[in-house]
Amino acid sequence: MPKLNLNSAHNGTAFSDIDTCDNVRSTLEPKFHQPSRKLCRSGSLTDKNIERRWQVLASMTDKDLLLDPFTQQHCHQYSHNIEHFIGTVNLPVGIAGPLRINGLFANDDYLVPLATTEAALVASYHRGSQLITASGGASAMLINEGVSRTPVFAFRSLSEAALFVSWVVTQYETFRTIAQSTTSHGKLKDINVNMEANHVYLVFEYLTGDASGQNMVTIATHKVFSYILEHSPVAPANAYLDGNLSGDKKANVYTLRSVRGKKVSAEVTIPASLINKYLHTTPENMVKFTQINTVGGLLSGSIGINAHYANALTALYIACGQDAACVAESAIGITRMEVTSNGDLYACVTLPNIMVGTVGGGTGLPTQKACLDILGLHGNGNAKALAEVAAGLCLSGELSIIGAFSADHFCRAHHKLARK
């Protein structure tokens, strides 16, 4: 196989190490021989299928590493969560806290489980949580909630699209009835129309109870979608269940002003003496750091301004059985810091896209349920509280990392905790 060096340049070309054109052509062209390894066709989780897969994988790694006794004992509980199952990946889980949240729904001192392989992460959130708790806790408020699905209909002309919209706006109550016939927990709370010439996007926004709700809104919207295709006075040239306006698993500007999942703000006022004690810096230094880094974020085209919401949310989501891919939209938000009139630090975060649930999905799996049990937030009635805890956790991480940069301790902490 030819050796490629994509970082070198020779006469304006990045492929100076390719042996010959024929070699690279033969390397990159399609191959139609049978795969050297084949898995069983069925993706279902049965003992027989697991054994068949391991007959293929046995020469590659130690089966006991992925299919340990605990996993074998509980594996059939995963049957609705994964296909082509071969085992589990063990992730270290740390605990941060206590994190005091004074919220509309979360009101307690929380010990927060975080699943990660990144050294220094749990230590940072632990420090930030202790600082918030020493300051009386973070106030947290769930401001709004809603999960959307956005079917799109393409017509041959603007006039056809207008005729379709004039019919759609008379059907809202019918759409609500149809959507809610598919779920006992969800509620279609709003329908909006967005036209782009002869394309029409319908924005269906739902309340999803204590579930994260993405499957719920997909099933409900699909039933309405089918009704529209059957009854519309004008047939679309093309129609799809989602037109990519929902922001599902993507960073996007729209939901920064709106909501996807749960929108939460959290704030705390911290005495300067505690900033010095826990973070070894001053409120003034931290505010100056955030001001300068806000400009850097604008220059980079960042959607929102924050230091590292993704660290907290990914570790929390994985530990607690959430859809980790939703961090793509959940990690959007705004962090602000100000020096108060008496020299203390005011810090706040707003996250408009926290996608969490306490029922359904992966929340009932053994270790994920155990992590939610540590928080005291498994089961019905707890999703709003989990969202407020998530926002408070992000606030704790913003304080800790901004304090570390302001005191020039960031590198030292990672050198101490992450180097072998």
Report the radius of gyration as a whole number of Å.
25 Å
The parts where pLDDT drops under 50 for at least 5 residues are none
Count of spatially separate domains: 2
**Overall average pLDDT:** 92
- Total strand segments: 11
**CATH fold label of the largest domain:** 3-hydroxy-3-methylglutaryl-coenzyme A Reductase, Chain A, domain 2
Which CATH architecture of the largest domain would you pick? Alpha-Beta Complex
CATH superfamily of the largest domain: 3-hydroxy-3-methylglutaryl-coenzyme A Reductase, Chain A, domain 2
CATH class of the largest domain: Alpha Beta
- The number of helical elements comes to 16
In percent terms, what proportion of residues is strand?
15-25%
Largest sheet: 11 strands, mixed
Distance between the termini: 36 Å
Structural class comes to: alpha+beta
Helix content: 40-55%
* Order of helical and strand elements: HHHHEEHEEHHEEHEHEHHEHHEEHHH
Apparent shape = globular
